[in-house]
Design goal:
There is one protein chain. By secondary structure, the protein is of the alpha+beta class. It folds into two domains: 184 residues, no CATH class; 186 residues, Beta Barrel (Porin), CATH 2.40.160. 26% of the residues lie in helices and 42% in strands. It has seven helices and 16 strands. The strands form two sheets. The protein has an eight-stranded antiparallel barrel with strand order 8-9-10-12-13-14-15-16. Strands 1, 2, 3, 4, 5, 6 and 7 form a seven-stranded mixed sheet that branches. Strand 8 and strand 9 form a beta hairpin. The longest helix is centred in the middle third of the chain and has 32 residues.
């Protein structure tokens, strides 16, 4: 299980490192964009029946292109905060031919496609959504938003986006069109996020970085309040303090004594948590980092009722425990939203070095007494630690995201 979590974290990190370059800052400052449309002419249709593939290629590709043009231009203009004009001639001719050849994703091949567009507006910056594939089984759309210079047809920026959805209504158009729009919406979120990063860097050039935010972390059995400071656009440090609440204050065991300290212990612990750490942004939605912390946890009481086994009907306070723990973890965080109170999902693996104090005592007497009365045992252990939860930003300071 530990190895699996480590593989997941590392593979997620490597995938994020493989992202495309950031949007050219020039594009953020362009006041007007010439919209060229959604180009399905090189889209591979996967796992659709031949009849449905034919219908998509013959008419529905262009119908989705024109439907987006008629319904979403105002939305796109608002989200990009730019004036959007469209090249109607190019859009009308965009999907007149369809090629079954797979799209070669590199600057040269996409540049050749763009050079063939009959663009009438040779000034300014163009934007096209070049669809690469539609996969029926996976229910996703893969496309490449491309900004390019209209006069030279030179690519200024492109990136891959993939939109997915569960289920879908009956009918080819109603099934695919929302997924196409969802993929474009993912591009818009990418654009807005990188624009905020670009503006942040401009604002904070040659300035001392201000405190970033106060956050709340919620785990299954723990709540922490923390403070984060941004050292740079990609590095943050944070401190947090919290409390772990036990689910039960005592646990009753009846019958023959067994190593009860190994049963249901995680339900009984409560105590205080202190952590400090840093994280490094590896993509627009993901961070990895290291956390070191101290935990002082208590298990209040375990009660043993010997019952018929010992021939007595008394109850005994058998065991209590206090743990002082040093924790070291590798954490990955993934942004789930970009609202005023953004939420992150985080998960991690690590180790904890525990100094354990166990108290064994009996109140009363018994014909069967497996432990000395009022005995205190000390132990040191290294144990694995797995964690996951949600992190919610509560308050932001300065020009943080």
């Amino acid at each position: 299980m530990k190895k699996l979590l480590l593989i997941i974290i590392l593979s997620g990190s490597l995938a994020c490192f493989a992202q495309q370059e950031k949007i050219n800052g020039f594009i953020f400052n362009v006041p007007q964009v010439v919209y060229i449309g959604i180009d399905f002419s090189h889209a591979q249709v996967i796992n659709e029946s031949p009849r449905h593939k034919s219908a998509l290629e013959d008419s529905l590709f262009q119908k989705m292109n024109l439907q987006f043009l008629s319904e979403q231009m105002e939305w796109l203009q608002d989200k990009l905060s730019k004036e959007i004009v469209y090249d109607e001639k190019t859009i009308q001719l965009l999907n007149s031919k369809h090629s079954e050849l797979p799209l070669m994703i590199n600057n040269d091949s996409i540049q050749r496609i763009i050079r063939d567009y009959p663009i009438s507006n040779s000034a300014g910056t163009g934007l096209v959504f070049l669809v690469n594939r539609l996969d029926k089984h996976k229910k996703n759309v893969e496309m490449y938003p491309v900004f390019f210079d209209n006069s030279s047809k030179t690519i200024l920026w492109m990136d891959k986006e993939k939109g997915t959805a569960r289920g879908g209504p009956i009918g080819l158009l109603h099934f695919w069109y929302p997924k196409v729009c969802g993929t474009i919406d993912d591009f818009v979120n990418t654009y807005k996020y990188e624009k905020s990063e670009y503006q942040y860097q401009l604002t904070h050039q040659n300035k001392k970085v201000k405190p970033d935010n106060i956050f709340l972390k919620v785990l299954v059995d723990e709540v922490c309040l923390g403070y984060q400071r941004k050292l740079s656009p990609v590095i943050n440090i944070s401190v947090e303090a919290g409390y772990r609440q036990n689910y039960i204050n005592s646990w009753h065991y009846t019958g023959e004594p067994v190593p009860i300290e190994y049963y249901y212990r995680f339900l009984c612990f409560n105590g205080f948590i202190f952590r400090a750490g840093f994280d490094y942004k590896i993509s627009r939605r993901s961070h990895v980092g290291c956390t070191i912390g101290y935990q002082q946890l208590y298990c209040p009481k375990v009660i043993w009722d010997p019952g018929d086994f010992a021939g007595e009907d008394d109850e005994y306070d058998v065991w209590k425990e206090q743990n002082d723990e040093l924790v070291l973890q590798l954490i990955q965080s993934i942004d789930l939203g970009r609202g005023s109170r953004p939420v992150q999902f985080f998960y991690g693996i690590g180790l904890k070095a525990c100094y354990i104090t166990e108290y064994y005592s009996y109140s009363g007497s018994s014909s069967y007494n497996p432990y000395p009365s009022d005995n205190v045992l000390h132990d040191r252990r290294i144990q694995p630690l797995v964690t996951f939860g949600l992190r919610i930003r509560l308050v932001s300071f300065g020009a943080g995201r």
